[in-house]
User: Fold this.
Amino acid sequence: MNQQRSSSQALYLTCEKYYIFELLIFAGGMMGAYTYNLRGGVFCNAQTANVVLMSLAFGHGEWRRGLYYLIPISAYLAGAAVSEALPSGIRHRNFLRWDTLLIGFEMLVLFVIGFIPLSVPAQVVQVTINFICSMQYNTFRQAEGIPMATTFVTNHIRQSGIWAVKAVQDRDAAARSRAFKHFRMVAVFFLGGLILTLLCGFLQEKAIWLAILPLGVILAFLLRADLIDERELFDVKPHGH
Assistant:
């Protein structure tokens, strides 16, 4: 049993595959473009901007506006906490991984958001997407052993530069490959945002349904892995957890 577990730990589960992370960040780009274009002109994929805006508001004495930013920040915090607390219990009570269930949950939430009229206060949708982006970011951590984010690209841009320099200085093919992977994540995020922006004027609030498409492909891969290909590896945790 120990020998089997040791062997399985060397494997990368389907939820850790690079193509899964590409699809995730493609959807992440769409969610960011959706909230910026149609839901209040903000990015809900990360919280750095909200912390900066809160400090600016407080600095200008705008206490009420500053306190508002605690809501999206708290939603992001809650998403991380929930996605950290639930997986262990689910692993012992279910035949599907937490990663799989989360993707299904995200699809359901985005489907519901598509029915919320643009006349509804944007904060409702902003906070909801804050929550699911945090859950996604905290759940999908490493792509085939490489730490990766799936809802923003700041670190991917940084890593692209770092590994590109190493590839040139050391003439290292592995470094070149790693730089290219991070660069591709940036490009895919950009593509997701571009596609949704081009179509949001036509689709309006339902434009968020475009993000359901890549998530649906992910769900199909993960369901096959959980029920067929990786059924015997159900107790193996993804790397980074």
